[in-house]
Every structure is written in C-alpha cells, then in structure tokens.
Write a structure and sequence with these properties.
With 297 residues, the chain is α/β, with parallel strands linked by helices. Helices cover 46% and strands 19% of the residues. It contains 12 helices and 9 strands. A 5-stranded mixed β-sheet has the order 3-2-1-4-5. Strands 8-7-6-9 form a 4-stranded mixed β-sheet, with helices on both faces.
C-alpha cells in the first residue's frame, strides 16, 4: 500500500480514559475521539475494546467507513505497556490495523511534551510515572501500579483518603469535613468501605482526587496534608529526572494542575510548559512507523 493511502492514528490510553486522533499521512486532522480506559493491567480485551472504539469513532467523525481500519497505522501508547509480559501479550493481539506500534503512555507523553527532543516528563493522573529521553537513553522511574507504587497519583490519594476515614472512625485522628463527606458516601459504615475497596479499580480510587484537591483549597487539614504528601512524591520523581541531566522537564496528566501549587519551589522553577501532549507524541511515532513501512515496500 502506498504511504499516501495510510491513515495515521495516535492513541493515549490511560487508567481513566483513552484519547485518540486520526490524521491523513500528510498530517491533516481527520477526527478525534475519547473512549474508556486502556490500562493493560486491567485486561488486554478491555484495553483493546477501548482502543478499537476510539479508532472507529475517529473514522466516523472523518466520514470514513470502519472497513478502512485496515489502512490505519497506529501508535497505541498504553498504560501498563512498560511491563514486558503485558507488552508481549498486547503485541500478539489480533488488531484490525495495517500496523500498530505499542508503547507506554509515558513514552508518548515525553515525545509530545518536548517535540521529540531530549527531556523528562512526569505523568500525574490516575497513576504516576516519570520518563526521560537523554542522549539516546530511555529512563523510567516509578509507575509500577497500585497498591505498590504510583505515589502522588489520583488513585493513590483517593486510597490514602479512605485510609484516613477508617483512622478517624477508629478515633486515631480527628474527623474533618473531607473525611465526614467521604464516610457519608458509604453510609457511615466502615465495612462498606472495606467491601468496596476489594473490587475497586485505580480509576475508582482516582475519582475522589478532585474532591480532595477542592477540600485542600478550603483548608481542610487532612486534604491539605494529603496534597502536600502527594506533591512531595512528585518532587522526588522530579529530582531523580533532573539528576539524570534532563534539559527540560514537564508535568502532565489529569491531576497535574491540582498538584502544581503544592510542589516545592525548586521543582516548580524547573518545569516547562509541554509543547504537545501524549496523543501528539503517539502520532509522531505512528507517522515514523508508516514511513518505515514505506521504506520496506
């Protein structure tokens, strides 16, 4: 197939949602879409269901039939793809695309944030991870998933808030308006919290994060403490990236804006505005893959 007939898809699949853009080979935007989460840790089938739903929606918005998925060269930047076993399983998945490069959401975010140049990025969303590209080397810090990692993320702070609800119930700490509000959601029943957490996903825990940030702005003691601790974890990731010699550092993700006021002054002084997002980074990688196919042909 001639390169000019390829359609190029970039997709950023996270723990809460997936975002996709479809372009012509020349770079003209054809359609955009949002679909469900595509975190490989939550299941290959569920992740690819979100991927294909987003791709089909992009085609529909471009006025292109679904049959043209076979013309699409995609970069699927998926949470969880940093785990070798999950990556291999995803690479073996029988997708409908002409070709698909599968990488991590952090890799695509780093490419997008710095226009493909050297730099580092911290994603603070449902999860957290730091990623850097420096002199041809790739570095990954954190992002190992709940409950063992992802400190400072929306999911982490939601989990920590519920932990403190139980502490308050046990009279280990004082109640605050935030803790009262969260407890009321479970009918003031600690056993309901325990039952809920047994099956809750990172996305479920992360749903509490915006409210925690809001209560922190209203000087709720526990909410402010949690935001400060979360920010200190981001500061730690930033220090590690800066220690690697990254020339520029960006903070991105759905929880990033809420966290930024709580960061240490040194961290804030080193942050630069991203020039693009993870979907843009995925599109850059997809276009490079399409060019490689043309070279082979």
């Amino acid at each position: 197939m001639a390169a000019r007939n390829h359609l190029v898809l970039g997709l950023d699949g996270g723990g809460t949602q997936s975002r996709a853009r479809l372009c012509s080979y020349s770079g003209r935007l054809l359609g955009e879409a949002v679909s469900g989460p595509a975190n490989l840790r939550l299941g290959i089938e569920a992740s690819f269901s979100s991927v294909i739903d987003a791709a089909r929606t992009c085609l529909e918005r471009a006025g292109i039939a679904h049959a043209n998925l076979s013309r699409v060269v995609a970069c699927l930047a998926l949470a969880g793809a940093s785990e070798p076993g999950l990556l291999q399983t995803a690479q073996r998945y029988r997708h409908p695309f002409r070709a698909a490069l599968i990488t991590t959401d952090a890799h695509a975010a780093c490419i997008g944030a710095h226009g493909g140049r050297d730099g580092g990025v911290i994603i603070a969303g449902t999860g957290t991870v730091a990623w850097a590209l420096v002199k041809g080397q790739t570095y990954r810090i954190g992002g190992w998933g709940l409950p063992i990692s992802d400190e400072g993320s929306g999911a982490w702070i939601g989990s920590e808030a519920l932990r403190r609800v139980l502490w308050a119930h046990d009279r280990r700490i004082a109640w605050t308006p935030l803790l009262r509000a969260l407890f009321a959601e479970f009918s003031d029943d600690p056993h309901a919290i325990v039952g809920w957490t047994a099956n809750a996903s990172p996305r479920d825990f992360g749903a509490f994060a915006p409210r925690i940030a809001d209560y922190a702005r209203r000087d709720d003691q526990v909410a402010a403490e949690l935001m400060q601790i979360a920010a200190s974890h981001i500061d730690s990731l930033a220090a590690r990236l800066l220690g690697l010699g990254v020339p520029q550092l960006a903070l991105v993700g759905g929880f990033a804006a809420a966290l930024q006021p709580w960061l240490a002054a040194h961290t804030k002084s080193r942050l630069t505005a991203p020039v693009g997002d993870a979907v843009g980074g995925a599109l850059t990688l997809a276009r490079a893959t399409a060019e490689q196919l043309q070279d082979v042909a």
